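Instructor's aside before we start: the two examples that follow are unrelated to each other. I chose them only because their records fit on one page, so don't look for a connection. First example below.
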Amino acid sequence: MGMDRNTVIGFVLIGALLIGMFVINSKSRLQYEGEQKRIADSTLLAQKSKLDTVATKLDAKLADSLKAAQNQNAFQQTAAVAQSVALENEVMKIIFTTKGAQPQQVIMKNYRRFDSSLVQLQSGDFNNFSYAINAGNNKTAQSSDLVFTAQPVVVNADKSQTISFSTNDSTGKEIIHQYTLRANDYMVDFNIILKGADQLFTQNALHLNWQTEAAQIEKDHKYELTQTHICYVKDGSYDYEYVGKGDSKSFSKPVDWIGVKQHFFIAALVAKNKFSSANTEWKVPADTNHFVTRTTTTATVTLPAGSNQTVPLQLYYGPSDYNVLKKYDNKMENIVPYGSGVFAFVKYINRYFLLPVFDFLQKNIASMGIVILLLTLLIRLITSPILYKSYLSGAKMKVLKPEVDALKLKFTDPKTNQMDQQAFSMEQMKLWRTAGVSPLGGCLPAVLQIPIFMSLYYFFQANIDLRGKNFLWANDLAAYDSIAKLPFEIPFYGDHVSLFTLTAVLTSLLISIYSMSNMQDNNNPLMKYMPYIFPILLLGVFNKLPAALTWYYTVSNTITLILQIVIQKYIINHEKILLQISENRKKPVKKSKLAERMEAMQEQQKKLQDMKTKSGKK
């Protein structure tokens, strides 16, 4: 029994051991299987990751291939910062940007703004030159968005400099912007050279878009605005538009060039083969700003049939100088406003007489103020014979004043104290005729002086050589002089005091007072106030005008006053005039055609007046 019990215990222990071993083996197997599964899963995941990476690379490569295939005909475009390249000569510097291959900044080397910085005729983001091209795959692109490659500057045999910018696509189409700047010149030759033009442009039409901003250059923004024009040559004829408050202008006929003239400086786009059509619009800031106007011009250039084409253009950035503009032989010299409107004809006096004399004087005399004085003195001496005839006629009428007064009494009704004006005028004409006095002797010489007066008015406002020249207290003869700044603005006058304006007005007042004292009839109440009205009006008008102009008026008035006193006091002999009048009365009277017409008109008016009087009595 004991042995059986021991056997049973042995079997139990062996069974327990077997069970324990089974359990242990089972857990180990499960762990092993789990580890094997983890290893298998990791391997599978790694393999899958490798497959995904390969697939991704294949997809990216395929995408790049597709994108390259799509852009096979496209020009390079980017928003990255572009490179700048400079081209300069003795008078100007142009900084180009490779983005759009266009001028980015234009600096005048010999001219300064009112704040003493160099004049910049192009600067800022608004300025832009662009045109649309067919970029492939039914897409278009603007040339101003294309990235060009700049070539080294080439110095030509005539000392001019040429810089070229190029861009192309993989099919052979190419665009080249070529700029040439000559020595001491403001005109830039600008050629657009095209390869594949028939594919780049639809219907052989190149549509340009030119934007330019006229920055404020002079100290008086409002006055500069009045001198700013949109200028152009249309169908072979020059014309212009005042900027005003902004407007637009369309051109259906061929246009040679379109420019923006802001007082003394110009930015212009020229087409050597003409624009077939164009439109330009300009906007002016509502209040004083850093710019005078912004202009946007769209113009069409018709290209000949063919793949390889050159579009010859020019860009002018420079002064409004007649001598400079004349040499281009494209009517651009008309931009200088030496005469306009009713007085357009005085531009010929300015161009062919005053300008040559002025140029001669300024080459030999350092002070511009003295140049103006001598020029004015020359003009007054040339016109002094006309002035003499005017004063001589006035002196004759003054001698005849007692007889004229007697005629007034003769034709004045003592009861009503009313004068028969028609009868008096007829008898006065007869008196003048018998005495050898012309009724137009006083006013005609004054009328003949108007063209000279107006030509100088335009000349001193438009001549850029006066700009920046100082004289006495005036810092700039091309702008108003100011000896005091007012803390407020006076209507019609302004917010400053111009001393040259005061001297011009004062001398004008002295002339008026002296002339009134020598008038034949100075008893008219209205005439007593006339000497004061005109100078007061001049005070408001002249205060904003350039100092060169008010200095000229001061000199001219002073010379006129001196001549008037000398002629009337020391040259005109009143006794000789009386003797001459007596001799004239002895001669048979020969009526001029003008006198006959005037008498006929007076007689006709007298008859009508008599008929009205008779009708009234009935």
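Example two begins here.
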Amino acid sequence: MATPRRGGRPGRSLIALLLVFVAVFGIVGATAQLQKGKKWTPELGLDLQGGTQIVLQPVVAGSSGAVTAQTLQQSVDIIRARIDGSGVGEAEVTTEGGQNIVVAVPGTMDQRQRDLIKQSSQLRFRVVLVAGAGVPTPTPGSTGTPSPGSSPTASATPKASATPKATSGKAATPSTSSAKRGLPQALLQATTTPTPTASPTPNAPSPKPTNASDLSQITPALEQEFVALDCAKTRAVQGSRDDPNKPLVTCSQDKTEKYILGPAEVVGTDIKDATAGLRQLPGGGTSNEWVINLSFNGEGTRKFRDVTARITSLPPPRNRFAVVLDGLVITAPQSNEVIPNGQAEISGNFTQASAQTLANQLKYGALPISFTTQTEDTISPLLGAEQLQRGLLAGLIGLVLVVLYSILQYRGLALVSIASLLVAGALTYGMVVLLGQSQGFRLSLAGVTGLIVSIGITADSFIVFFERVRDEVRDGRSLRAAVEGGWNRARRTILAADGINLLAASVLYLLASGGVRGFAYTLGLTTVIDVVVVFLFTYPMLALMARSRFFGGGHRWSGLDPQRLGAPAKVGLKANLGTIAGRRAAATGSSAAPAPSAGSAPGQLS
């Protein structure tokens, strides 16, 4: 029978654990120093800290009917996904009286979060007919104002392909009239048509648009609205006035550009997914350019293919496709080629933050109805400091009971279990703070409960390990061999138990909502930390202690005394615990008798 394989150097495992601590707390400290508002304490949830509550009231445009419970619930799910996608943890999104939506966010709500919640109308894709600077177009004596006409991938100023020869049949729209002075050249072209073979009949009806890119949709009223629009006053173009079946005059969110857009052709529900990432190079690898990868479902793929096939060959800015959210254009990229497979990429001068924000808007922007903000209030903690103190007191009582049990059951080995609990607690604290700084994780009372349960998980791990080691000592092995043999047997049990805990936490997190998800999150986190602590601290510490005289010599207070554990009486550590053959002979009652000692009576034959 081979002896258990000795483990590697325990000092290396302890150094690896030290590096983990340095990395975690180093990042926490650097973030607290460099980023305003970050601190060394965990972020608390709505029930412990309070926060901001916004009540959204549905707005039904036109004659689409009343808001149904199904539509309202769908809106709740999308708004919750938006908030979660932005990194805000422990937020609550509920309905109120079957009419309004109540959004409660922990802590102080910043402007980015507020805008994300309030941007709650449908997401629509519209082709660009005209683009211009985002300020009112000057009328006196101007013959043409260059349009920015540019997007992240667009070319510069749009150019007219031909000089207008005649006016359309619309009344009072001559190219030299005051109504058209100072308009972009593209708009001048849009309101004129080539001269037909016969003179147009006065008051003849306008030609019916053949598609959403047809410039005949631009009426004198749209021209006047475009000229007068000041994008510094975006409230005038936000909200439920965004009729998907009609052209739209609106602005970009950054207020630098204004547009006349065609009717909506693709809607937010046609989007399957939107993610931000670094651009993939054709030959493999990635570049330093942030892009948004957009994918459509079956219906959206067909629509997007038809639109890109139509607008790709058009002159700027009519080869651009604007994405409209809450009545404003969040992006208007240029179509460079026909996209038949529903996989599009939006590129431009994006940072990581702006790319992620745009991806979230595209992915979670398709609300079935529009909303207005009814109220916005600061709310007090739902539970408060007293409940948190009681929860922490319960955890402290549980920790003390575990320590007392360890001392009574394992004596000197209790030092290892207590130290393991302290190391696990410190690493858990650092990870909770780090996740709060980087991922928006907030600790609720349910999360605190998950941390308290983790005390039992860590205690289970070292109890399994200690009992395996003691079994090896009972079999007559030296303590150093017993530690290795016990670890080989215990680690499989520990990994199996922690794997089941992690699986349960994952399923609970995916299927539950609200505070239960906070419990599942902390339970899963502490389960992973338990594996790290057992492998990098508990086992190597016991391996080092086995080399000491107190533990290795089997002191009666070490918790590893062979006699107290029931090891064979003649087997001692100093005698190297005998041989395997000798122990086998003693166990099976071999007939081979030992040689008589001096002065003893000779043996008798029967």
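DSSP finds 16 helices and 14 strands in the chain.
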